[in-house]
Specification:
Aminoglycoside 3'-phosphotransferase, Chain: A, domain 2, two-stranded antiparallel ribbon
Length: about 350
C-alpha cells in the first residue's frame, strides 16, 4: 500500500484499470477527497487529463453488509440508463487481492455539495438557490419514477412493507437502548402505536436513496443537480418515506429552530420554501401528498431512535466521548421526538 494513499496500492490499481476499464489511461495522479462517509475516496486524473473517483471501504474489520461497494456500483450503473443524474460507472473490482478491498471507479462530476450556509454563500447566487430547490425535487421525482426492474435493480431489496419494517427496526433499537441510555420516553411508545395503527398503503416499490439531501448532491453554479452521491444505504421501498426525509431536512429560515435543521445549507437566503418543493414533487409524480405528515413524523421518530442509540453507546462507554457534547445530542433526540409528535398532530 502507498504511504500517500492509505488503503490503495497505486501500481496494482493502475494495472487493474488498464486491463478492465475503458475510457481511462493510467497511471493516475491521486488526491484525497473530503466529506461524505468514511469510505476511502480519491480523485484520479489519468494521463489524458480524464477525471475519475475511486472508492473503497475503510481499512480494518467491517460489519458484513457495511460499505458495500458492489451495491453502490450496481445502483449507479442501473440509474445511469435513466435521466437520474449519477456519475458514470467505469468499473468495479471485487477481488480484494488487488488493493486490500473491493473498490469501484466512477466519473468525477462537476459541482459542489452543499453542507452549510457558508457553502451556499460561496457557490450559489440568489437566482441559483431558487433554481436548486426545483432541480432538487425534479431529481428526486425522476428517481421515484424509475421502475427498478427496468434497470436491473428489482432485487435491490424487499419491495413491500417498507415502513412497517422500519418501524420494527427502530422501535426495537429504542427499547434495546433504554438501559444504556438510562432514558425512556412515553411519547415514543405512543407514536409507535399510532404509526402501527395507521400504516399507509404502500405504492409501487421504488429505489429510495435513504439520505437524500443537499449534502449528497453535486450542484453546479446555476443551481442544477449534476449528480446524486452516496447510495450506500439505498434500497427498495416507499418513495413517500424518501420524499418526507428530504422535506424534513430542507431548512426554512422563516421558522425559528426549524425542526432541528437551523444550520442546514438551505437556511441561507434565496431558497424556495417547503411548500414549493411539495407542490413540485406532487406535480411531477402525481403522488398523493395528503399523508405526508405521517411520513414526516415517522422520519422524525426514526431520527430520535437513531440518536437514542448513539447516546446509549456513549453512556455505556462503547464510544469515546472526547469532543462530543452529550447534552446537545440528548437535546437533539428530545427535539426529534417533539417534532414527530407535533407533525403527527397534523394528520
Amino acid at each position: 500500500m502507498s504511504d500517500q494513499t492509505p488503503g490503495y496500492d497505486q501500481d496494482a490499481v493502475n494495472a487493474w484499470v488498464s486491463e478492465n476499464v475503458e475510457g481511462l489511461t493510467p497511471p493516475f495522479t491521486w488526491e484525497q477527497l473530503e466529506g461524505g462517509h468514511s469510505n476511502l475516496t480519491y480523485a484520479l486524473v489519468d494521463t489524458d487529463g480524464n477525471e475519475a473517483v475511486i472508492r473503497r471501504p475503510p481499512q480494518g474489520e467491517l460489519l458484513p453488509k457495511a460499505h458495500d461497494m458492489g451495491r453502490e456500483f450496481k445502483i449507479i450503473s442501473g440509474l445511469g440508463q435513466t435521466n437520474v443524474p449519477v456519475a458514470k460507472a467505469f468499473g468495479y473490482c471485487e477481488d480484494p487481492s488487488v488493493t486490500g478491498a473491493h473498490f469501484y471507479i466512477m466519473s468525477k462530476v462537476s459541482g459542489r455539495a452543499m453542507y452549510s450556509p457558508e457553502d451556499v454563500e460561496e457557490w450559489l447566487s440568489l437566482d441559483a438557490r431558487a433554481r436548486m430547490g426545483v432541480s432538487f425535487m425534479e431529481t428526486l421525482a425522476a428517481l421515484h419514477s424509475v421502475d427498478p426492474a427496468d434497470v436491473g435493480l428489482g432485487d435491490l431489496g424487499r419491495p413491500d412493507g417498507y415502513v412497517a419494517r422500519q418501524l420494527k427496526t427502530w422501535y426495537g433499537s429504542w427499547t434495546a437502548s433504554v438501559p444504556g441510555a438510562e432514558y425512556d420516553d412515553d411519547r415514543i411508545h405512543a407514536l409507535h402505536e399510532m404509526f402501527q395503527n395507521n400504516l399507509p398503503e404502500q405504492g409501487p416499490a421504488r429505489v429510495v436513496h435513504g439520505d437524500y439531501g443537499p449534502h449528497n448532491c453535486m450542484v453546479d453554479a446555476d443551481g442544477n443537480i449534476t449528480a446524486v452521491l452516496d447510495w450506500e444505504i439505498s434500497t427498495l421501498g416507499d418513495s413517500m418515506a424518501d420524499f418526507a426525509y428530504a422535506i424534513n431536512g430542507w431548512g426554512d429560515p422563516d421558522i425559528e429552530g426549524d425542526n432541528g435543521v437551523s444550520g442546514s445549507a438551505t437556511t441561507a437566503p434565496g431558497f424556495v420554501k417547503r411548500d414549493v418543493l411539495i407542490e413540485t414533487y406532487a406535480n411531477l409524480t402525481g403522488a398523493d401528498v395528503s399523508r405526508l405528515p405521517y411520513y414526516r413524523a415517522f422520519n422524525f421518530f426514526k431520527t430520535a431512535c437513531i440518536l437514542h442509540g448513539v447516546y446509549s453507546r456513549y453512556k455505556e462507554g462503547k464510544k469515546s466521548t472526547e469532543g462530543v457534547d452529550l447534552d446537545d445530542l440528548f437535546d437533539r433526540m428530545k427535539n426529534s421526538i417533539q417534532f414527530a409528535e407535533s407533525t403527527a398532530a397534523e394528520l
